[in-house]
Design a protein that fits this description.
The chain starts with 10 loop residues before the first helix and ends in a 15-residue tail after the last helix. The protein is globular, with a radius of gyration of 16 Å. Helices cover 34% and strands 19% of the residues. By secondary structure, it is of the alpha+beta class. β3 and β4 form a beta hairpin. The chain contains five helices and four strands. It has one domain.
């Protein structure tokens, strides 16, 4: 039997939470996001592969003790925050840990001098 309180996050949960927040919140990690958004939306991608050649991201992944992490993104066409938003999901199968982030990929494109993402098809309303 363990003394761990199920309502308290584990070290791995805290590390994944910190990693996800840093990857989407710090400009120094934008090269990773550029790679992610160049990959197919709605498909799981190996974060380790996306981080190849990015030492800042690799150092953060090393903190997680080689836990495999998958990441996926999908546009959020009807965001209350406006156009260009998407969700990014980080998932670690070991422990069934996940974090979801809201991200303005339109802002990322504008910062890079690129046109914003095309508006995804919306829902049909009756």
């Amino acid at each position: 039997m363990t003394d761990h309180d199920p309502d308290e996050p584990t070290d791995a949960e805290l590390l994944l939470e910190d990693l996800a927040a840093d990857l989407v919140g710090e400009r120094r990690h934008e090269p990773l996001l550029v790679r992610l958004f160049a990959a197919e939306a709605g498909v799981w991608h190996d974060l380790d592969e996306l981080a190849e050649g990015l030492p800042l991201v690799r150092a953060r992944l090393d903190e997680l003790d080689a836990l495999p992490i998958h990441v996926s993104w999908i546009d959020l066409p009807d965001s209350i925050h406006g156009e260009g938003y998407c969700t990014i999901t980080f998932y670690c199968e070991r422990g069934h840990l996940y974090r979801l982030a809201l991200y303005n990929r339109g802002l990322l494109a504008r910062r890079r001098g690129e046109p914003g993402p095309p508006r995804p098809p919306g829902r049909l309303l009756n």
